[in-house]
């Protein structure tokens, strides 16, 4: 999985007054959990642009006074009015410990059903993945090539390389539905065939 770097500064004061002062200075208060003890720090809001405002997922290398901590974003709070970032929780990664993340689904291939007039529906845009940090995928690939009209692609058909998918086996990732136009055409064809059969009699 791709990693992005964020430069932060450790905080000694973590009370409400210090937190408000940090926000007024354009900084985002953050905490890293998962280590021996929580690490409080601040970073400029623009530093999180490539992490928060994107459909992609990344691990994060947090630079704190020359010391780097690898982590993933765990939780984020936004201001309900201005939509500014109020607070971010990170979880520290350890090379020998598996981690759980939501990873986007990437559709590949041209469905036979879609080419025949069906409509593709992506039921799962993200899937919960568990893996060691080094094996976390950027996305989970969903090949729809063999999907005929009315078919479903189940999670059991997705390739998993050194990671586990945590959804139930009956989870539908994508399906090809019959479009209204295709349904109407089929109904009209059936009517025409029925009419032709009556004339022959």
Report what the structure shows.
The chain has helices spanning 16-24, 49-52, 112-115, 180-200; strands at 3-10, 27-33, 39-44, 59-64, 67-78, 85-92, 99-108, 119-122, 126-131, 140-143, 152-154, 164-165, 172-177. It has a six-stranded mixed barrel with strand order 1-3-2-6-5-4. Strands 10-7-9-12 form a four-stranded mixed beta sheet, with no helix packed on it. Strands 8-13-11 form a three-stranded antiparallel beta sheet, with no helix packed on it. It folds into two domains: 3-93, Ribosomal Protein L25, Chain P; 100-184, RNA Polymerase Alpha Subunit, Chain A, domain 2 (Beta Complex). The longest helix is centred in the C-terminal third of the chain and has 21 residues, at 180-200. The chain has 201 residues and is α+β, with helices and mostly antiparallel strands. It starts with a strand and ends with a helix. It has four helices and 13 strands. Belongs to the bacterial ribosomal protein bL25 family. CTC subfamily. InterPro entries: Rbsml_bL25/Gln-tRNA_synth_N, Ribosomal_bL25/Gln-tRNA_synth, Ribosomal_bL25_b-dom, Ribosomal_bL25_C, Ribosomal_bL25_long, Ribosomal_L25_dom, Ribosomal_uL5_bac-type.
